[in-house]
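Example pasted here:
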Amino acid sequence: MSIRLRLFLILTLATSAIWLSAALWINGSTRAQVERVLDARLAEAANMVSSLISDQRIAVAGGPPATISMPADPDYSRQLSCQIWSLRGDLVGASSGAPGAQLAVEEGFSTTMIDGVPWRVYAVHNDALGVRVMVGDRMQVRDRLVSGVVAGLLWPLAVIFPALAVLIWISVGRGLAPLAQLEAALRARNPDDLQPLPDTRDPREIRPVRRALNSLFGRLDQVRRTERDFTAFAAHELKTPLAGLRMQAQIAQRATDPATRDRALAAIATSVDRSDRMVRQLLDLAAIDHEATPAENLDPATLLAEIAQGADMQAVGARVHLLTRAEDAPVLHAPRVLIQSALRNLVENAIQHSPCGGTVTVTASTRSGGLRFTVTDQGQGIAPEDHARVTERFWRGTRTSAQGSGLGLSITAAAVTRMGGSLHFGQARKGQSIWIDLPSGPSAP
């Protein structure tokens, strides 16, 4: 259902409900007023007849019942009926059209059912003459009066409502015109156009929508640029080792002496390792950016042992000692893939930049409110001027070897951010120290 149709239905139903409520209220109010006015009329008529009898203007002594003339109304002719009964129970007089049965037996106002018709009656006693004067009218007449008033209110509704509905439909359409204009602007926009929507004099309710759309366009543009850069850099970085593989394979095929062949095969193995690490890093980056990773309880000591086992071949090949230590660290509640990606890339970077015979130390320790993982190597370290850009994707620092891809620290930073932690850089006594601070409790994402 469109917003315009929904608003139209809401407004028309609300208008109808208000009108009907007013009709019901007027019905009750008018009925009460009519009851009071007609009851007063009954009392006045009964007292008038009693006064005329006392003044002997109406003869009621002996003979057949007298005929009492009641005032006639062209619209409500014979509305009032009058009866005069003696206190002994004899009919003394009655108006034309009055029922044969006694209208009332009690003095004052009462409602009586005569021949299945309800009557409203006022009775007054004339003790001097020993008679009871009763004046009444049918309740149907009163209902007809009230129905006429209510019908007079509802008939305009039946006539005006179609015109009112048309006006509401047009008004809602004009009120939603800015939204329709925004829809038209979005529909006419090229899918590749992620520029912000131009500022116009929109109503206050449309401005947040325009701001939200512009913010979305900005984020989409940033994601698209990131994906383009990612694809371009990945293609470039994978092209280099693949080209080296092809060249070294050709050298190995044409080599006539074992030494040249062995050097070519060693170069091939190096290129394969570099390509393998690049692919793993790209997969890690994709997992961090897009996958939903549930958190679980992880033992830091077991986690470090798994990381050390995975990096053992690299450490042996680089002739680097890899040490792990968990100092009574608390249980970590975090996504396994994120913490493994963060630590694995830190450890691989540390091994890659450590000198032959150096040591890489990985520790897990308790800190206030959480857990700290620290990776320390004995390499040249990160230049201070590179700290601001060292976590950018595919960016290599001034002290980075040609074998690096520029993804390791960016993967670590992204994973740490997803886990709600923080990444810090510092100088060790000899080399580089990098540590990750994470919350340890179930509150971690």
About this structure: The chain has a mean pLDDT of 78.
